[in-house]
């Protein structure tokens, strides 16, 4: 696992990357991003590989609110570079969007980062992010050993391929679970204002937000967004508990006794377009409570994302209990 250093003014935890070869060329540094639907490559890498642009384009909305149409290309002969001289893991044919992105030049020791790997690829494997040991491992579906880990119920969010869990905070007695999607392509965690209300946090104009640090977020288009922060711990809620008489949910399963909430971090608060658009149904924007769980929480522990299922949107996420 490669960790891409943040600039001195950066907030959160270092991005993660691995090395890839494509058609025998490389290796090239690729960020790993579970908050990204498809794969990306830079125009620079497109030139190195000599790939011609096709007529297909993908329209996407960046965090700054700008709609961008980028060309799609096929990546053939891609493999993960092991780095010890052995043959790397051969990957299936990938579809990549050609675009520049802010993290491309974020770390002088890994400049440029030539692409990103998103859920189109990651969903094909059980992906083991072993942050304490600084390694990423990809297994055939069902090939991971999750003994000693806590299995958290999760779901694939609409057609985005992103994985969501029920998030709560133990720091507020009136906290209600909200939807949080796991995004190892974000250095920090962010919640929208409806999520702040559901979690029992102070309202938008409370002085607590003026006293803490602010975060300048970047969308894929590079436009800045300034967000206030508040320091909190996060935890998760399990499946709904159903009343046997009424058939209605009356609460949620609690984590096991072995589970310890994630350590507290400065959580950004703001209504990023990513919430309304990724979590929407493609017709109506989502306007409910939501969270983007970034590397400031995820990198605290080992986490395994289960591969996709052909029959269900349900997933399992296994995380070290402490």
TrEMBL record:
It comes from the Eukaryota. The lineage of its organism: Eukaryota, Sar, Stramenopiles, Ochrophyta, Bacillariophyta. Pfam families: Asp_protease_2. It comes from Fragilariopsis cylindrus CCMP1102. This is Peptidase A2 domain-containing protein.
